[in-house]
Specification:
Blueprint: E1 5-7, H1 16-32, E2 39-42, H2 44-52, H3 56-76, E3 89-95, E4 105-109, H4 113-122, H5 125-144, H6 148-162, H7 171-187, H8 196-210, H9 214-223, E5 231-237, E6 248-253, E7 265-270, H10 274-279, E8 285-286, H11 290-293, H12 295-312, E9 316-323, E10 326-334, H13 339-351, H14 357-361, H15 366-371, E11 375-377, H16 379-384, E12 389-390, E13 392-395, E14 398-404, H17 407-415, E15 420-424, H18 432-437, E16 440-443, H19 451-459, E17 462-465, E18 471-473, E19 478-480, E20 485-487, E21 491-495, E22 500-503, E23 508-510, H20 515-527, E24 531-536, H21 539-547, E25 553-557, H22 565-575, H23 580-605, E26 610-613, H24 627-637, H25 641-651, H26 663-668, H27 670-689, E27 697-700, H28 706-726, E28 735-740, H29 743-747, H30 749-753, E29 758-761, H31 763-771, H32 782-787, H33 804-818, E30 823-826, H34 837-843, E31 847-850, H35 855-871
Parallel strand pairs: 14-15, 15-16, 16-17, 24-25, 24-31, 25-26, 26-27, 27-28, 28-29, 29-30, 30-31
Antiparallel strand pairs: 1-2, 2-5, 3-4, 3-5, 6-7, 6-9, 7-8, 9-10, 11-23, 12-22, 13-17, 14-21, 18-19, 19-20, 21-22
Helix pairs in contact: 4-5, 5-7, 5-8, 6-7, 13-20, 20-35, 21-23, 22-23, 23-27, 27-28, 34-35
Length: 872
């Protein structure tokens, strides 16, 4: 018989896929003996079964749910249905992967018109009706879609009418307000169920449905979480943090989630329930102050926090409630953290001997590394700037943009190309799409564990919360402080590292070297099987690549070297030459430019390998097309405008990416490749004479035929030997390889391997040629493909393993059969993609090559691929 519900005592942390992250951790904490309120979990599988078949609940779940409630009654010595010994429960979602604020929660479930009076007799009037109002508001919002703010409006009106706080209402006034809440249900043609079991069924079904709410779908898309996992539902005995000043609630990280510092970091509120902390409705107190207010509770919490971190070997995000001086742990999970914190925590845990280096490497996502190498505000400009507002540094970074007040406006302005700062009193899960596109998020309310803070840290987005000096009016679209009034469209600069907010735009610079990052990536190098090289074409690129730890250059493009003002003129002279003399003149000047380029590049790289790709693009890319530019070129070349225009028109191609480019150019105009190879070898000779033993690696692009490669290789070898002779140089090693970027090249890789010293896969063109997609135009339709689930991802960003990947795998296998030691790399965009790297590891690639700023993340990704490979 299939089982759909598990008591907390039945599961363990290993059951995460079945019980969700929250349920598995509640089970694990119960097993460890922590003070966890009793409860049970409905499985993720039951969620998906219900979402696919609405009759599933009554047919399969209802009976098991009643049995689970009876067990809970026995365990707690309370009753769920009667008015004696009240059992109230919370109903919370709990997906496999943490999705903060994306799905739904209902507290105090089981109260009704009768039981609330019993609760008032057992506790006090204000507390009991506070719980009942919260239940009606959450139930109405989650189950029936009645906006929670509508209930707040009724509360404010009642307080005004009675001229006192709701906490001071008498029973008649409390009941009157409850009746107004129920009238709100009636206006939406709904009735709040008075039977606790009916409440529970509807609440569970609503939480199941919340798996598919728009904000949850957007969050999963953002974080690459599968849509078919479902959410578990946790039903748990209520403990009350809102039952007086000996009670409270809080959210605490065992280490600082922004910096990684090893000390408790979090907040608490006395006489409050958990939603008050994360919603930002009240400003909470730092957790350290709990030691003064409730010292025994604080000491208990310290003990359990250390116990949980040691058990899970990671920084924990813990939710707790105190009821009349007794501590309860409601949840623990691996805490979301900034990239800086993730790195420090990982390295510190190794130093503390709680993790091995390999375990630490698996704790940091490669995408996080990207966050460590992006700009910060330029220090001098920052010193000269004066902040006009200050909040809490909830998520680090530096960002500038124009103010917007709604998620919708953020999306609208972003789509028009503007950088935006989302400014709100507080964010809610409904704001997720606007938060995604924002450069930074600023709120006037909420703390370091508010919704805005948690979501921003998870996205690596700069965020400042709790900037209480800001009066934010989302209706009039204004931000007001004592001295400043801003409106939508005004420019702000936000410093998420300090919580300071500035008027106008501040310049940014790249962050300083991070010692933790250097240490961490040195561990990555120790375990990696693949080298990480760089795609580069300027000296700045090369130096950046070396700073980021590249082992060499996997692709040095040469076409951009011809676009300087002097160079482009000579290139155009060469392309448009009428006779040999004009061609020779242009080639002589280009040779000098190229030799100087390669000399500086080789000198920068020293003994590290560098693959230089010979000219690849079609010739029309170097030519002017605007009539004024053609006129100017005609004057410089001394040619009639009409003749020059005719030549340029003749060089145009219907489909230039499939036309006269790459090796085809080298075959029809061999002088260009000869010039480039001569420049490469002459620069190498100079450097060898200076004591730098350069070994040039020359790559021929766009090969489709074995005879193309053989023809050009013969031409290049002849040129190289002639260069040795003309320079009176003894021969030295060099390599001639090819770029595999056509499907046909993959299919005849064994034949090409006979002539090539190395292969490098150009996955951009290979994907383009395999799919028949233009990589320049795919953006016009790929989003629709993804929306309709025709394709789950852009194949130019993540390797198409089933198609393009199989071509690469076949080529590697066949080439290695001919030359087992053939060096093979990846130099297309996916070479730096952490999602694609494990595939390259599996098929035996030697190195990946990517843009310089992707190198640190790629270094971690190749290490993680190696670790997973050894574990499998």
């Amino acid at each position: 018989m299939e089982k759909w519900i598990y008591d907390f005592s039945e599961g363990r942390s290993k059951d995460k896929a079945l019980l969700g992250g929250k349920g598995a951790n509640l089970a694990e904490m119960t097993h460890l003996g922590l003070p966890v309120p009793s409860g049970f979990t409905l499985t993720t599988e039951s969620c998906m079964r219900y979402l696919n078949d609405a009759t599933f609940f009554e047919k399969h779940l209802a009976t098991e749910l009643r049995t689970a409630i009876k067990r809970l009654e026995v365990e707690t010595n309370k009753t769920f249905g009667s008015d004696e010994d009240l059992l109230l429960v919370s109903v919370r979602s709990g997906a496999v992967f943490s999705m903060p604020g994306m799905m739904d929660t209902i507290l105090n479930l089981g109260l009704n018109d009768s039981r609330v009076r019993t609760l008032a007799e057992q506790t006090n009037l204000s507390f009991a009706y506070d719980c009942y109002r919260r239940l009606l508001q959450m139930f109405g919002d989650v189950v029936y879609g009645i906006h929670k703010e509508s209930f707040n409006v009724l509360l404010i009106e009642a307080e005004k009418a009675n001229n006192k706080s709701v906490a001071d209402f008498n029973e008649q006034q409390q009941v009157s307000l409850i009746e107004k809440y129920k009238e709100l249900f009636s206006k939406h043609k709904k009735v709040f169920p008075q039977q606790p079991m009916d409440q529970l069924k509807e609440a569970i079904q609503a939480v199941f449905h919340s798996w598919n709410n728009p904000r949850a779908n957007v969050y999963r898309e953002l974080h690459g979480i599968a849509h078919d996992l479902g959410t578990a539902v946790n039903v748990q005995e209520m403990v009350f943090g809102n039952s007086g000043n000996e009670s409270g609630t809080g959210v605490v990280f065992t280490r600082n989630p922004s910096t990684g510092e090893n000390q408790l970091f979090g907040e608490f509120l006395l006489d409050a329930q958990g939603e008050d902390v994360v919603a930002g409705i009240r400003t909470p107190q730092p957790i350290q102050e709990l030691s003064e207010r409730l010292p025994d509770v604080y000491q208990d919490f310290l003990h359990y926090a250390q116990m949980l971190e040691t058990h899970y070997k990671d920084m924990q995000d813990i939710e707790f409630t105190v009821e009349n001086g007794k501590l309860f742990i409601l949840q623990t999970r691996n805490g979301k953290r900034t990239a800086k914190a993730a790195l420090k925590i990982a390295t510190d845990l190794v130093a503390e001997k709680k993790l091995t280096k390999e375990e630490a490497l698996m704790r940091v996502e490669p995408e996080m590394i990207d966050q460590l190498i992006h700009p910060i505000f330029e220090p001098t400009a920052l010193k000269q700037a004066t902040a006009f507002a200050q909040g809490l540094p909830a998520s680090p970074g530096a960002a500038t943009g124009e103010i917007v007040f709604t998620a919708e406006k953020a999306k609208e302005r972003h789509e028009l190309g503007s950088k935006v700062i989302l400014v709100r009193q507080e964010t809610s899960p409904e704001d997720i799409e606007g938060m995604i596109v924002s450069e930074a998020i600023v709120t006037s309310r909420g703390g370091m564990t508010s919704h805005a803070a948690v979501v921003a840290r998870g996205m690596g987005t700069c965020c400042v919360t709790g900037s209480e000096t800001l009066t934010i009016d989302e209706e009039t679209k204004t931000v007001i402080t004592k001295d400043v009034r801003l409106t939508e469209g005004d420019i702000l600069s936000v410093n998420g590292n300090t919580g300071e907010i500035y008027l106008g735009e501040l310049p940014t610079v790249v962050a300083e070297n991070n010692q933790d990052l250097a240490l961490f990536l040195s561990w990555a190098n120790e375990v990696a099987d693949l080298d990480v090289r760089a795609n580069a074409e300027t000296l700045t690129d090369l130096r950046t690549a070396l700073d980021f730890g590249a082992t060499g250059i996997g692709l040095a493009r040469t076409e951009h070297m011809f676009f300087g003002e002097e160079r482009i003129l000579e290139m155009r002279r060469l392309i448009l030459a009428d006779n040999t003399q004009e061609m020779t003149t242009a080639l002589t000047k280009l040779l000098a430019f190229q030799e100087d380029d390669f000399y500086q590049m080789f000198q920068t790289m020293q003994e590290k390998p560098m693959v230089i790709r010979l000219l690849d693009p079609p010739m029309h890319e170097f030519l002017p097309h605007d009539p004024q530019d053609i006129q100017l070129l005609a004057e410089k070349l001394g040619q009639p405008v009409n003749e020059l225009t005719t030549k340029i028109e003749a060089l145009k191609e219907t489909n230039p990416m499939l036309g006269h480019r790459g090796c085809r150019l080298g075959i029809t105009t061999p002088e260009i490749y000869q010039m480039q190879v001569k420049a490469i070898m002459q620069s190498a000779i100079r450097l060898r004479q200076e004591g730098i033993p350069v070994i040039p690696e020359i790559m021929i692009p766009l090969i489709a035929e074995k005879e193309e490669l053989l023809h050009l290789k013969t031409l290049l070898i002849e040129t190289i030997e002639a260069t040795f002779n003309s320079q009176n140089s003894s021969p030295f090693p060099y390599q001639i390889g090819t770029m595999i970027e056509l499907p046909r090249a993959c299919l005849i890789a064994d034949q090409l391997a006979e002539q090539a010293d190395f292969f490098s896969f150009g996955t951009n063109d290979l994907t383009q040629m395999t799919y028949g997609f233009s990589r320049d135009d795919i953006g016009k339709f790929i989003n629709r493909y993804q929306e309709k689930a025709i394709m789950t991802q852009d194949p130019f960003q993540h390797l198409d393993q089933q198609g393009v990947g199989q071509l690469i795998k076949l080529a590697v296998s066949n080439a290695r059969r001919i030359k087992p030691e053939l060096s093979i790399g990846i130099c297309g965009e996916v070479g730096g993609d952490p999602q694609s790297i494990p595939f390259f590891q599996a098929i035996g690639i030697d190195y990946v090559s990517c843009s310089p700023y992707r190198i640190p993340a790629a270094r971690l990704a190749v290490a993680q691929a190696a670790i997973r490979s050894r574990r499998s």
